[in-house]
Amino acid sequence: MVEFALVLPVLMLIVVGMLQFGRVFYYWISVNHLANEGARWAAVDCDPSVSGCGTGAGNLQKYLYDNASTGELQSGLKVCIVPPTSIGNPVVVKVQKQFTFLPIMNVLPVTIRGSSTMKSEFFRGAGGTGPTYVATNNKNGPCT
After folding, report:
1. Which tens digits make up the pLDDT trace of 49-59?
2. What pTM was computed for the model?
3. Residue 107 within any structural domain of the chain
């Protein structure tokens, strides 16, 4: 019993550490996927939430928020899109999520970042009916 009492805290620390590492890895994959998906939609100047992809102006950031895989991932998620100015110019999508390894004590906070850059293939211009981008006034603050 004494040996078990000595080993149990170390064993629990290892198990909880593995679970938290798995969550961080999952969120990292998710934010990279959201950034890639957002950059692809922005490169073709299209918002998938609008039927016909371009028959009306939608909000690509809101679409990416809504497609975050879990409610915990949506909470505190930052999506920033730097729109292109013409065809061939890059569009940059950055996605960030703040993660804390021990949320009870607010220990070891990390920022999980995903970014994707693609060249614009189609551009409607400022007066077009493509998706809207809010580069600096993000729902949860600006991306870094």
Report:
1. 766 665 445 57
2. 0.78
3. yes
- How many domains in the chain? 1
Q: Flag whether pLDDT at 136 surpasses 50.
A: no
Residue 96 neighbours by CB distance under 10 Å: 22
- Written in H, E and C, the secondary structure of the chain is CHHHHHHHHHHHHHHHHHHHHHHHHHHHHHHHHHHHHHHHHHHCCCCCCCCCCCCCCCEHHHHHHHCCCCHHHHCCCEEEEECCCCCCCEEEEEEEEEEEEECCCCEEEEEEEEEEEEECCCCCCCCCCCCECCCCCCCCCCCC
Domain that holds residue 27: 2-119
